[in-house]
Amino acid sequence: MNLLFKKWKISYVSYNRSYSQIIQISQRDYSDTVDYSCKNKTFLNPFDKSVHKNLGSENYNSSKKVLPAQKITSTFASHNEKNHPTILLDDPQEMTALSMEKKILSYQVQNWELEKASETLKTFLSHGTVPDRQIVLDIFEHLAFLGQVDNLLNLNEHLKEHSLISNLDFLRCLHYAYCNSGRISEGVEMIRHLFDCVCHGAQKELDADIFFNLLTTKIILHFPHRLKLIQNFINEMETKHPNLKASLWCCYVQAERFAQADEMLKKYAPLKKLIPAQVTKLVQCCGSLDFNVDSVLMWILQQTYIKPGLKSSVFDVLLIYTCKMQDWNKVFHYLLYARKEQIKLHQQTLDFFLNEFLNEFSERTIKDLSHWSDWTRDGY
Predict the structure, then answer these.
(1) Whose CB has fewer CB within 10 Å in the chain, the N or C terminal residue?
(2) What is the rounded average pLDDT of the residues 70-87?
């Protein structure tokens, strides 16, 4: 990847391809982008594990709708030109709008032709063809990776009435775009806008809170010198949203800045009564937030101000997550820890563990283990 800087413009040339995009940023955010790009290379591509995994998927949620082959060909002639010499080779009589959409959009996304992909998406919608949701999400994730905030916002506005991407997925992509472009101050303004919408009933409070958590955690980790923006926002909104200070504590925990989290509780004693709600939200939204589940939840379990009932809920999430990772050594370590600390394990969680663990073995092996258990129990 190449990053070329000219004054306050960034030309991002993705994967040495010919496609490039100029990202306009303000002077005050320029140094943020440079620092973030150079010092946090591993985060520049947050979707590296999933961005291509579903391209070419045969799973479509919408019904197939056939469009005349000539109409499709003429519609996309301006898009294809000499760039897509192979994507229209199927039999036109059997070509459906969805299979055509799949080929064109997959090709454009794989080649990072995101502006073309966005226009193709809009064109298909104008012809009444509903695109595959996964390909739509891929376009949003690629735009987020390139830090194309404006294109992301514009495309979401265009697709809003079609419900092709969940609000939560969009907000996740949006927070990545703000970070990858260095436009942190604009990201904080978006937080303000979302909470204003909550006050007017136009936005779910949970979605606004998740966006706050996502962006604030990244600011703590990668832009600590801009944390004052968040602190000022919290102070301004204290009367309307008094729980935001507790949410900041939660962000310190997610960022594994445990010393700062403890310092907040010492400085603001009333916060302690709000912690159970924050921990509950953390475990309920575990799949929507970005944090190290093992280290964060284990730290929470070790805090004396967390009550036994809440500890059980936290441990349930930790054990289920580790089972899904199939890290069985760690699973048994956690089970021993729970026994030592007298943390109650719910029956549903135990059943999940046993089901996942026993699925690792063949039916014959399970029968042998059962016979061995009977043999040892009877003392033979």
Answers:
(1) C
(2) 40
